[in-house]
Amino acid sequence: MNIELQRLGVTGSSPVTPQFPAARPPARRLAQVLEATREVGSLTLLLGERGNGRLFLATSAARILAAEEPQGDSRSGVNSVAVAASPVTVLPTPPTGASGVNSVFGNDFSIAATPQERANHILTSLASDALRPAMTLIAPDVDAYSPGDLQLLRLIISHPHAPRTIAIATGLSNEVESLMRGLGHTKLSVAPLDLQDADEYLSTLLGVQRIDHDTLARWHELARGTSYGLAALGLNAASSGRLQRNGGVAWVARGDDSVSGEFAEIHTSGCTDDERRMLEVIALAEPVTESSLLRSFDATVLARLFSLGFLSWRQHPDRQALVITHALLAESIRASLAPTRRFEIYDTVFDLLDADRHGLDPVHIPERLIRLVTVGLLADRDLPAAWLWNAFDLGVRRTNPHEALRLAVRVGAHPDLRPQQRAVALLEAARLASLIGDYDTEQLSGHAIVRLLNDTAQIDSIEPVVHAAMLVATIRLLVVPPVDTAAAIAELQAIESRFTDATPHAREVLRASRVYAHAGAGELRLASELDDDTPVSGDLALEWIRSSARGSMALILAQRGKTEQAASMSKRMHALTQLGPLARRDFVDFHAFGWVVSCCMGGRSDGATEVWEGLAFGPLTFASSESHHAGLLNAAQVIVSIQNGRWSDVAQQTHQLLQELQLADSFGLRPFVSAARGYALAVLGQREESLANLHLATIPVWGVSQMLTGLCRGYQLRAHSWLGEGDVGPMADELAAWAADEQLEYIELMALHIACYRRRTLPAEQLQRARTLAAGLESAQAAGVMAHIERLCQADPASATPIDDSLEVRLLAELGVWVPLPPAPGLTPREREVALFAALGRTSRFIAERLGISARTVETHLAHIFAKVGVQSREELCVWFERHPADLTAAVNGTVAGRRRGSKKLASPDAAPKPLKRR
């Protein structure tokens, strides 16, 4: 191309659109554009919001077409050798008034006297540049073209030898209509990406198989589905080291969704200083509903930002609020602000909000009060004690935990508040600090509580129920860690003896705390005895106080096999802990977790999945931002995945959850999650990593993992069984004996089942014990396990023919109990998953839906499995799966396995594969 056109910037990409070489547009969208633009000389209009990837889509399609076409132009009769340059020309975006450039096509009009001559000159330059073949001309933002540029572009695209042209516009304005009028063209709407397309786009960009659903959903909402915003989030997470990868899945922990200030700098590059400063104020103050704030904005600047699409009105909740249109842009603006500028804005905004109340006390206007206090704390203002307390009382549990902690700490330290108020605030500060992993603030709050307890002049004015809660908090904060549970429980008992004359609510605080402490220490029988048959009270406040004890008991009841009772208790408490201003929202997820555990241990796979999805994605009446810090819903998801046999998902979910629990683990979940991970990795055949996680699961941590000691040890035992450990039988006997001492009938039965499966029989005494246990349990799993034990015990040890237990094995799989797959060398983790379901008689469609892959992929995996195992069909795979474990060692070592019920001899797993039948 000639020097003039290079100077004008006709080649190259738009300066405001980044290029991501590793990315490609979603296949469905790219196919649409390719179909519309394939014909040489075609005209295509891409309509959509900024950031939807219109330019990226256009350039990607143009480059694919250029690569497909021969290096020549059939219309002109010119043939050429291949050239290195891509025959794609992207016009610059329309110039602004301050740029000094009057036209997309430059300012030098000396080369042509008329627009037609100038258009001919540009076409000649494009066609003669290295004798390029069919050109593609891309014109961004044609709806912002000047009349002269529109006329010139129309002359170019209506020329008999016009290049293939892709025009890009935000909307179908009159100018765009006039450009297209009378010309054959195709209009394509480029909407924001849906979740499926966003996953495909980001996975390609980041080089992974898929994006974790939770991360994808958060990013999709933040970026509003725009490809530019999604790319900014993904690349920023990758470059900052926040992006985690495991097993082909990428994710970012909740709370780490940030984007650099560069995003805002690029998008606001055409704004004036006044416009950028207004955007900064709105980004920190949004949603803006107050008239004082709105009146402070320059109307001219405001109108300009609206016309550029930066601002919009949004309903909030009973009035219109001014917001930045794209949440990602607002986030980027906030990230770009220096601390001094941020403080300056908050200081100004507070003054405007304070002036807007016209001297009226905002205490009785909740929304205005919380707004003033939130901004006032950020501006480090001295706020009236009444404001602080009322804002705390109204909104501390309904906002971001970090903001709530800031408010609770300020209330707890305010000298003008009553001791009762400061005590409540300090208790909340300690809880929130523990939840988010701010251990310094947690300890400081604990010491402040101790000082208040030692102040005899103030402690007498604090209600007994709060006094009791403060004493419990000091034990938890100052005795733990390191965990000295015996000393903590002894201290609780001593305190309880001093409160015999206190109110029922105060006594219940101490009793419930002792139940929770025993359960959290793994002393499940003692916890059960302390809380045995405590009736449901008509006093809602009393039930709130019992929340911790009720949650502990639900987990214990589930391990005892009283799964319906446990599920009912968890469901009831999950509802009660969300009611009223004093509700125990810190235990909402705890009861949700117990509800899911109860459903799974009851064998209700579909019910457990439905409950978890309702909890995770349904409407919540409390501050859902606390959920990701607690980790309980994520742990519940792990249990559901185990129940449904999605082992790769379990491996990925536990890896992600363990990473997040390193920052904060207020409920003591790490050993349990490690046990679940060890179990999943054992099923997937990853021996060394499985053993490492099983070891981590044995390290006690006070909390939920100890409350679920039976289930946790059950996962470990099943993992060792899958790994083929030689001491599984003695381990099962040990677990059964422990479960009997702790009165965990369900766990004892499961341990007897593993012992029976390992030995293929049970002694008469243990068999009778299993029958007694199964008869008294509510769980459907118990009935399935007992049926399998009975079938195994029917076998004649002297017989060479193993017992046919296939029906029972399939029933157990339906209930979420997974009998080990025989060891087969060479199977990948995914192949082991597919083999497990195929050997249970599941169709390819079922396996595909369960594992989230295509049926065609399932068939490919099966072909590999047949070859590696040495079978030719699903039927033979089932036979291989059902063989007696005594034959498996020989099979793995390359010897021929014995015959089973007259079936033809099966090749050993190491034998040369036979030709496969096409399925």
Automatic annotation (TrEMBL):
Keywords: DNA-binding, Transcription, Transcription regulation. Transmembrane segments: none annotated. SMART domains: HTH_LUXR. One of its GO terms (molecular function) is DNA binding. InterPro entries: Sig_transdc_resp-reg_C-effctor (IPR016032), Tscrpt_reg_LuxR_C (IPR000792), WH-like_DNA-bd_sf (IPR036388). GO terms for biological process: regulation of DNA-templated transcription. The keyword Iron does not apply. The keyword RNA-binding does not apply. Residues 1-22, 899-919 are annotated as: Disordered. Residues 820-885 form the HTH luxR-type domain. SUPFAM superfamilies: C-terminal effector domain of the bipartite response regulators (SSF46894). This is DNA-binding CsgD family transcriptional regulator. It comes from Leucobacter exalbidus.
